Amino acid sequence: MFQLQLRCGGLVAIVLLLASCTLGIEPGGQAQPSSARTMAEAAKSFVAKLSDSQRAVIVRPFSDDAARVNWSNLPVPMAPRDGLALGSLDAAQRSAFHEVLLAAMSSQGYHKAASIMWIDDILRVEEEAALLTMSPAARAQREPITRSRDSGQYWIVFFGKPGDASWGWMLSGHHLAANFTVVNDRIAFTPLFLGASPQTVREGKYAGWRVLEHEIDRAFALAATFDADQRSRTILSADVTPDLFTGRGRKDSLKAPVGMPASMLRQDQQAILWGLIKEFTGDAVDEAAESQLAAIRRDGLGKLHIAWWGPTDDPSKRFMYRLHGPSILIEYTREPDLPNGTPSNHVHAIVRDPRNDYGEDWLERHYVESHQ
What pLDDT, in 10s, does the model give residues 132-146? Predict the structure, then answer.
């Protein structure tokens, strides 16, 4: 009888432990709010700090499909945005928005996004110097773009009311587009566009500062392990063409994966691959990142394909790689060299979920993007 009580007590303890994990309760501690609720509270606090006129501009109905897909990586003069510019906010409002961004992204994701915005200020300095060498006509044409290079030119828009069963928000500007959708306490974080120019700061007191570097290092480390058969299946062309990258307006352009199934990788190679995948999915807050990884694992490596264009031994040259499966699309590319032959210091990356961009699978609807 005594032994039976011990066993029952042990069973109860195990059940309670499992329940605490499900509810987000640390053993011996208090219940922790979900990431979705933490983000909603941060969003409510931010919106509360806005004036009535600001709220009228920044908050859109959740059903506003045109605004929900109106993100871009282009400069604002080339692709006008909805919502409010970060630079139009006062210090308290801007600080409150950073709390929203921190709640939605991991520490690595937040610092990538913050660095991309900051690097646009560096790009402006570089381009202003270049303007001085241009003819008056060329300078007049280029100046509006140069003036838009600004860490304040990133636009915020909310869809629906934070904390509702379904709501979302977007941050979009040059080389950055972050889309977050909450459906019944689950967070979708795609599409997520990250880019940088310069990718590595080469001059001045910030020389050496770089962003989106590990996405290069991990991919080239994986490519270096390919044997002859794997290379023949993965490397599709020595050239990279502009039509390959799946940016806005090309959401439905990839009908089937190309390249090598990841199931053909050895175990050591698979470990590198998962590190590369996590470099992208890990930009989102932990709950969203783990949910995305779980979906990829459920699909299986046989359905995840690896494709490569360009060289695999020189990351300073133009290259592109793609990881594509039912639940993930990751692409990274170095843009073309400059007209004078200088190697490009300009990169683009994107993470998409073919099933659930904008939370559309959870919402049981399809969002149509216009071509950019």
Answer: 899 999 989 899 999
Split into its structural domains, the chain has a count of 2
State which residues form the domain around 118: 31-188
Burial of 261 (0-12, 13-18, 19+ CB in 10 A): middle
Tell me, yes or no, whether 104 lies in a domain: yes
Give 161-210 pLDDT, tens digit per residue.
999 999 999 999 999 999 999 999 999 999 999 999 999 999 999 999 99
Closest CA to 122 of 44, 186, 175: 175
190/358 Cα distance (integer angstroms): 6
Is residue 130 located within the same domain as residue 56?
Answer: yes
Residues 285 and 327 in one domain: yes
Q: E-assigned strands of the chain?
A: 59-60, 84-85, 154-159, 166-173, 176-183, 186-188, 192-196, 235-237, 260-261, 305-309, 320-325, 328-334, 347-352
